[in-house]
Structure formats: structure tokens, C-alpha cells
User: What shape does this take?
Amino acid sequence: MDLDAHVRLVESQMRTLLVPSEPALQPFYGMMSYHLGWLDAQFRPIQADGGKRLRPLICLLACEALGGDIQRALPAAAGIELLHNFSLIHDDIQDNSPMRRHRETVWHLWGMPQAINAGDGMLILAHLALQPLQERGVPPATVVQTLRVLDQTCFRLCQGQYLDIAFEQREAVDVEEYLRMIGGKTASLIAASAEIGAMLATDGSQAIAASREFGWELGLAFQMVDDILGIWGDPQVTGKSAASDILSRKKTLPILFALQHLPASSAAAFGRVYAQEQLAEEDVPQILGWLEQAGARADVIQRAELHTQRALAALDRTGGSGPAQEQLRALAQSFLKRSF
Amino acid sequence: MDLDAHVRLVESQMRTLLVPSEPALQPFYGMMSYHLGWLDAQFRPIQADGGKRLRPLICLLACEALGGDIQRALPAAAGIELLHNFSLIHDDIQDNSPMRRHRETVWHLWGMPQAINAGDGMLILAHLALQPLQERGVPPATVVQTLRVLDQTCFRLCQGQYLDIAFEQREAVDVEEYLRMIGGKTASLIAASAEIGAMLATDGSQAIAASREFGWELGLAFQMVDDILGIWGDPQVTGKSAASDILSRKKTLPILFALQHLPASSAAAFGRVYAQEQLAEEDVPQILGWLEQAGARADVIQRAELHTQRALAALDRTGGSGPAQEQLRALAQSFLKRSF
Assistant: This one.
């Protein structure tokens, strides 16, 4: 599946928004460009890993599969990727993460105040990115509607983030609460990517709704696979240490499932170990044992498969066709293969 | 000048956006409502000081003075005030300020991660606030244009914030740099308030440009008066300690003017005192002496008067009329009277 040409289009479109307006502001733009993988910490051009650009790809392919012109959707695709990256810059501050994609995070290099501001700047650029839609022939009412979807999505993202931060301070979180949280934090933006792509290709409300559903189900599956990789992923592939989510005591789906489904005594023991300030490497085998005992891995794999099937069924209902439709299908299937 | 009815309209409009969608999210909405002065720290309704709502008032009056219907401008006025408050929530984190308007700040009560997220949420609400413009008969193309002005303004705000944070880490900042910074941080949003109000009343590009200029000049005057109050303001009136900006070593306009205009030996001594980690109450009289010697207060007053005159001249050029026009004039004049 060769999507390099699409990625290059998105990159160019994003770059048009990040041209410093005056020399004094160069570091402000520089911090954002650093995060996107275009500059190093001294603001010299490089090609670092800036992420897979998955969301804008879904937007462009969803547009193309429904007969739309990807040139028309490009400003929205760029805006979606900038929105995603705003959330990562702030997430890294909130999680106190020093590294992302093998590089120092923005706050770790330039301090928390500037990193908050760089994230804010990126969020605003995500909006300004959509302004050129009009020049590309998208009717103003559709531009307003696109911005509405983008902002409703971003608000759900903030709601999900609120829950995520609140959960860290709570002992018990149940699986349903967790699913609502990842719905806001992950699935809603992937849903919006597919929805906006469809909106810029067609007025057909059924096709748009099915495209959104495709993205939503795909987003849930994506997060579940991520949760599996965070515990059982190959460090060579993930670029993180083995069982990294366990060592950082993240309450991801397999953990919450086990806490809810283990016999009471094991669940209590698990809860005590997980509630420690710091987890040691030595605790990991015992925790993996509890997860195994609860059948947590199998359950989450099964859920991810279910959501992928639902995504594929929704994709069929969009009525899309051609190579782009097949690429969306292949993309959805490839997620599952990432892990097992 | 009775603008209470206008303020009440803005408050009601803002409240429509902050209705929790489900009980689990109540604290997320609660933190934002607390900041706006509607709830206490336990999320019980109160009436606290949430600020003067100056920017939405300017928006509504600018619309009214040009013959527009304030009901049409209300969603934009609410959005502008939310945008302003987003910047305050993040500003308080970035400045490490524990108090605002005699109340604890959001980050101080709920921690930095949740406060970043509450600010992000408020910024998105500022955008969603504008969506009802369409239902009120504003053409979609004007809605897109209004969102463009709002986002360009917010991006300038982020640029100003970048400079502000960067200046704190620098020894020398000249007056010109400072004026550029406050242009971004303060004047641009007041300019946008007046511009958007005009845009929602008329298509006349000259009236819109003059209204924007009114807001811009007013914003500069406003910040200069604030800088004067931060040093020479009456603690009874400002609610801050005397010479509060000196004690927190802020590089405001009077300080920068003095550093630039004192004889070299005094300027160097001033610079050394101001560069201390911590300023003592005992340092204040000496610093006030240097400011006096440089004529800093008189210079900043003169600048504030000049910008107020320019604002009033621009207001005349808008061609606005009626009580709203007179209220805008009175508002501009009242700023100067705040301080001297």
C-alpha cells in the first residue's frame, strides 16, 4: 500500500502554515516544527519521525473513495493532523513525558510555559488550516460545518483528557468508563477524519454517517491494539521498553479488565501492587501472570477484532469504491496485524 | 453608563455553552465555570468577580453603533470573552500565579494538567460559540470570515505570549519589542472585538477597518494604563499590593523606558537591582526614584493619552452613531481616568 504521495501532500500543506512571519518569532514556529519532525532542537532542517500521519490519510482516502477531489480535502487533512499534534504537545506536559518518538519533548527542551503556548499555537493553526477550503471551491456553509465537526471533536478530546487525568488519581476505573474515555481521546478524532473526508466529497448523509462510523470503530480498535502493544509489544517494533505501560502503571484496558475479572483475592493483590508509587521490573512477571489468569489479552484482542469488523462493515455501507476504498480496508486490517 | 443589560446578555449566552453533557464530566465544566466566576471551588453556584467583560461589550456596542442587531452579534461576543478567558487560564499556569481576582487560580486548585485541559476546553468553546451565528441570519461566508479574524487574533495572542515568556529570560528588552509584544497579547483581541462587532453590522470595509483601528489603539492605551497601575496604582482600587509589578520584577513599559533613558551608570545600577532573584520591599523606593528620574511615568501617561486620542479619532471615522457610539467613546475615556 503506497501512500507516500498522499503523506507528501499533507506535509507540504502543513508547511504552508508554519512560515515565520518575522525573525523574532522564529523560535515560536521552530518549536512547533520541531515537534512535527521538521527541525532539530537548534532549528536546523532534519527529517525526524513525526508520526504516521494516519488521520489525514484517512481523511484524504475517505474523500477519494467517495469520488471527491483530494486537493479539495487537503486543507482539512492538514488541520486534522495539526489538531492531533496540538493534543500530543499538551499530553506530553500533562503526562510529564520527557521523550516521544525517540526525541525529547517540547516541554523538556523549552520548558512548560513555552510548550503550553506552542500547543495553543498548533491548535489555532489547525483552525486556520481550514480557511483555504473556500478557495478550493468548498461552499462556505460546508466550511462552517467542517469547523463545527472539528471543534466538537476537539471538545470531546478535552473531555476524554479530563477523564484520563482524573482516572490517574482514582483507584478503581471500570471498563465502561475507560471505553468512554478512549472514545473521546482517540476514536472521536479518527471518526472526524473519515467524516470530514466524506463531507468534502458528497452531500449524502448516509455515506457521511457510515464513513464516520468506520472511523469511530477503527479508532476504538486502534486504541485497543495500542493497549496490547503497551504491554506485550516487541520493544524492537514499538520503540518502547517491554511492558512499558505496566512500568508506568497505566490503567489501560487489559489492566482494568483483569482487575474486574480476577477472583476477589487476586484482584485485591493486583490492586495493591499496582498502587505502589513505583513499580519494579521484578513486579512485571507477576502482573503478566494475573493478566494471563484473567484472560485479559484474549479479551482485548477479541474486542479489537470486533471493532475492526464493524469498521469494515461500515466502510462497505459508505458506498465508496476504487483504490482508495481498498486502501482504507487494508489500513483497517493492518492495525490488527501490528500486534499479533 | 449603564451596560449591565449588555453584560447579562453576554453571561447568558456564555452559559448556554457550559452545560455538562453527563455527570461524570461535571468537574470538567466546573473548572471552567469556576474560572468565569459562576461556581466556587466545590462547584456550588456563586457570583464572584469574573472580570469586566470589556471585550464582548466593545463587540456588542461596535455592532449597535453601526446599526446592527446585538442579538446577531451575541454569539461572537460570547466567543470573544471565552477566548480571553482561555488565555487567562493558561497565563496563570505559565506565570505560576496562585491568585486572580482575589480567588485561587484553576491550576492552583486542580493542578497543572487539568488546568491546561480546562484552558484548551475554553478555547474550543470560544469557537463553538460562533456556530449559532448562522441561525441568527449571518451568511455562512461571514461566519467563516469571523472565525478567520478570531483565529488570526488568537494566533497573534500566542505570538505575543511567546515573546512575553522569552523576555522574562532576557536581560535587555527594548521599548519597541515590548510594544510589539503587547500588540499581540492585548491590543489584537480588543481590535478583533471591535472589528467583529462592525463586521456583523455592515459590509462597509472602511467602517470595519476604522472600528478595528479604534479597538487596536484602545487596546494599547489599556495596556499602558495597566502598566501604570501595576506600579503606581492604589492597592484599594487595583486589588493588588502596591508596586506589585516591581515586586514581581515585571518588565513593563515604565521599567523598560527608564532602563533605556536613564544615564548609563543609573541604568546599570537599576539593571543589577532588577536582575536579583528576589526583590525586597526596601528596593522599591530606589526603583521608584529611578523611574521618576527617567520621567517614565509621564512618558507612559503621554503615550496612553496619544493612543486614546487616536482611538477616538478612529471611532469618529467608523461613521457610527447613537447611544452605543457615545458609550464606546465614554468607555475609551474612562480607561485613562482609571489611573490618574
Notes: Chain A has a mean pLDDT of 95. The longest helix of chain A spans residues 140-168. The radius of gyration of chain A is 20 Å. The CA atoms of residues 198 and 208 of chain A lie 5 Å apart.
